[in-house]
Amino acid sequence: MPDKRQEGELRDEVISISFHTKVTRGGRKLTCAALVAVGDGHGKVGLGYGKASGVPMAIEKGVKEGRANLSEVCLVGDTVGHTIVGKHGSTRVLLKPASPGTGVKAGSTVRAVLQVAGVHNVLSKAYGNTNPLNVAKATLNALRSMRSVEEVAQLRGVDVRLFHPQSSSLREATAEAGQGGEDAD
Questions:
Q1: Which of 46, 31, 36, 42 lies closest to 13, judged by CA?
Q2: Same structural domain for residues 18 and 99?
Q3: Which domain covers residue 70, as residue numbers?
Q4: Are residues 91 and 69 in the same domain?
Q5: CB 124 within 8 A of CB 96
Q6: Element (H or E) spanning 27, and its range?
Q7: pTM of the entire predicted model
Q8: Among 8, 35, 7, 30, which Cα is nearest to 19's?
Q9: What is the C-alpha to C-alpha distance for residues 185 and 181, in angstroms, rounded to an integer?
Q10: Is the same domain home to 130 and 155?
Q11: How many domains does the chain have?
Q12: What residues contact residue 9 under an 8 Å CB cut-off, 6+ apart?
């Protein structure tokens, strides 16, 4: 389904809602916690965790925190630029770029974070603890630690080319190879 949202409009996705009970002299006190991913679908993503006495208030607090923690991530087309492992606690999340049409092959927590970030083709695997909060933070750490081709070239001081299924340099190299083959005949 095409996204008809405008460029600056943010969307949010509730990843998990958990309930906690505190037993006091006066009885049981129920509280809720909501984990929310917020993003614009074009490379900005944030994570929020809100706690309140009711579910709507917890979600609202999570969205507010997610909007405050937005960060820009480096994407190539509609996938990640390179294979990367994100870590948080004992959780490891592996993200691999995928060809167009693959889709988001990921668990529900990783899928929610990647979809609000604007990633549509990726392969992933979560290792270790699969607590939704740890998996979401590991996914966000992986996305934040990705580097663009320009950043890598500047750090290394050499010309760097990205051979990626969705990069324009790969299409250009393929086109040049195809034209070169025609001239040789």
A1: 36
A2: yes
A3: 11-144
A4: yes
A5: yes
A6: strand 27-39
A7: 0.80
A8: 30
A9: 7
A10: no
A11: 2
A12: 40
pLDDT band at 185 (very low <50, low <70, confident <90, very high): very low
Do the beta carbons of residue 90 and residue 129 sit within 8 Å? Answer: yes
As to burial, measured by CB atoms within 10 angstroms (0-12 exposed, 13-18 middle, 19+ buried), residue 20 is exposed
Q: Do residue 31 and residue 86 come from a single domain?
A: yes
Assess contact for 122 and 94: CB atoms under 8 A.
no
Predicted confidence (pLDDT) per residue in 66-107, tens digit:
999 999 988 888 888 888 999 999 999 999 998 888 899 999
pLDDT band at 152 (very low <50, low <70, confident <90, very high): confident
Look up the CATH number of the domain holding residue 138: 3.30.230.10
Please give the pLDDT value at position 7. 52
Pair 48, 106 in one domain: yes
Residues 100 and 158 in one domain: no
Nearest CA among 144, 125, 126, 148 for reference residue 39: 144
Q: DSSP per residue over 121-165, as a string?
A: SEEEEEEE---HHHHHHHHHHHHHT---HHHHHHHHTS------T
Mean pLDDT taken over the chain:
84
